[in-house]
């Protein structure tokens, strides 16, 4: 990958034959420009700056979090140190619920370390075919979250995400 997109500054490299790579130059834009060395290789794949930074952030999150999937919230039945990952849907408004009931408060640990409590659980109905059950109500939560893993397993469906849309 570095051979295609250039090595970090200060890294000395050698070509595949063991001799220093002397046929590379930098263009005005700072991109690596090689003579004839990439003939026959796969087509070059380029990332935008935003895609690159998103990928780096995702890799750092994975490296430091010890998980390959981002964790937006964590949940436990008490404020103990054994907090388990949550696969629950979360809503910040009771007006979203079709039906709901009061539950024993459940502590939810936010990414910033704060704890909030889910006080109700219920059903949110988007249509007759699209119903979310056991949705937690957290009144002072900023977002409404749908757990993708819980959604596809409960509705037995496939989700496809595109840059500006999502298909169920």
Automatic annotation (TrEMBL):
Residues 28-41 have a biased composition (Basic and acidic residues). Residues 1-41 are annotated as: Disordered. InterPro entries: PolX-like_BBD. Residues 14-27 have a biased composition (Polar residues). It holds the Pfam family Pol_BBD. It comes from the Eukaryota. Residues 88-153 form the Retrovirus-related Pol polyprotein from transposon TNT 1-94-like beta-barrel domain. This is Retrovirus-related Pol polyprotein from transposon TNT 1-94-like beta-barrel domain-containing protein.
């Amino acid at each position: 990958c570095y051979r295609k997109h250039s090595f970090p500054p200060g890294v000395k490299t050698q070509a595949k034959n063991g001799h220093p790579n002397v046929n590379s130059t930098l263009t005005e834009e700072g991109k690596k420009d090689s003579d004839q060395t990439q003939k026959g290789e796969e087509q070059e794949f380029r990332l935008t700056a935003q895609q690159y930074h998103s990928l780096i952030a995702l890799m750092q999150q994975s490296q430091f979090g010890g998980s390959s999937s981002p964790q937006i919230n964590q949940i436990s039945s008490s404020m103990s140190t054994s907090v388990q990952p949550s696969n629950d849907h979360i809503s910040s408004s009771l007006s979203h619920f079709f039906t709901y009931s009061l539950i024993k408060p459940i502590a939810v640990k936010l990414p910033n370390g704060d704890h909030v409590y889910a006080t109700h659980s219920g059903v949110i109905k988007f249509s007759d075919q699209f119903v979310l059950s056991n949705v937690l109500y957290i009144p002072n939560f900023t977002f409404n979250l749908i757990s993708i893993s819980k959604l596809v397993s409960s509705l037995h469906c496939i989700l496809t995400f595109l840059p500006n849309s999502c298909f169920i």
